Amino acid sequence: MSLLTVTNLKKSYTSVAVNNLSFELEKGECLGLVGESGCGKSTLARCLLRIETIDSGSIYFKDAAIERHNERQMYPYRKDIQIVFQNPSAALNPKLKIKDSLIDPYEQYKKVLKLSHFSHTSKDAYVKQLLEAVELPMDLANRYPHELSGGQKQRVTIARAISIEPELIVLDEPTASLDVISQGAVLTLLTNLRKTLNLSYLFISHDLAAVKQMSQRMMVMQNGEIVDQFNSDQLFDVERHPYTKELISIF
User: Fold this and answer.
1) Cα separation of 251 and 247, whole Å?
2) Distance between CA atoms of residues 143 and 96, nearest Å
3) 198/227 Cα distance (integer angstroms)
4) Which PROSITE patterns match (predicted)?
């Protein structure tokens, strides 16, 4: 069952950033998107989240066409589509304690939330559940972002993303700013959360190894276009696109 269907999506600035993209993302899967920096991956993410308007094409989420929705119309869908950015320091408000950052999405969407994995019997209990889900101790709740390591901050942003139990999380280079040890731990955490919480991911990265580890299916993007799509176990097949083979050669 397709959770997200994108058809002929185009977005231009001074030049074409995303050109005629079409793909589907199934419920419960991790779909990987790999490509060099500047190829249009993050632009695509912003378009899917309706942070950017698109020039043409369609975006269907749960069978609803959302590509022309205004902000009021998007409100019911915002809780179901979350994002984890590359830089957790920029994603967290430096003036808020961690517990307040984790509570904020709930406060925004509580009128339309029906939580099944996390209970909101009290704010402290809710925050504790979220921190435990991303393997962080409760004593971090009263700290500020600058008091946490990069890996801890990224786990907090993941906890915030799952806090309102979305159906789809866009992971935009979520490990790019982390050291090698933290990268591996975060990828393992994300895999476990997807299975436990029945999440779907669009995993965006320039790191082919990370994309292969995380994803059931992969797409390769070059110059704003999807040039290759395949199951992850077909990465090394001879019929792969020349650009995919080029990425493999530096893998």
Assistant:
1) 6
2) 9
3) 29
4) ABC_TRANSPORTER_1, ABC_TRANSPORTER_2
- The domain tally of the chain equals 1
Q: Which domain holds residue 92?
A: 2-249
220 to 53, 216, 230: CA distances (angstroms): 23, 14, 9
DSSP per-residue string spanning 56-114: EEEEEETTEE-TT--HHHHHHHHTTEEEE-S-HHHHS-TTS-HHHHHHHHHHHHGGG--
Tokens 């101790």 belong to 137
Residue 41 has pLDDT above 80, yes or no: yes
Q: What's the whole-model pTM score?
A: 0.95
pLDDT of res. 106: 94
Cβ neighbour number for residue 183 with a 10 Å cutoff? 19
| Residue 201 main-chain phi, psi, to 5 deg | -125, 140
Phi first, then psi, for residue 122 (nearest 5°) are: -155, 160
CATH of the domain at 75: 3.40.50.300
Tell me how far apart the alpha carbons of residues 228 and 79 are, in angstroms, rounded to a whole number. 31
The pLDDT tens digits of the residues spanning 101-142 come to: 999 999 999 888 889 999 888 999 999 999 999 999 999 999
pLDDT in tens, 74-107: 988 999 999 999 999 999 999 999 999 999 999 9
Kind plus residue range of the DSSP H or E element containing 226:
strand 225-231
Measured distance CA(155)–CA(190) in Å, rounded = 10
Q: 52 is written with which tokens?
A: 């950017």
Identify the three-state secondary structure at position 221: strand
State the amino acid at position 61 in one-letter form: F
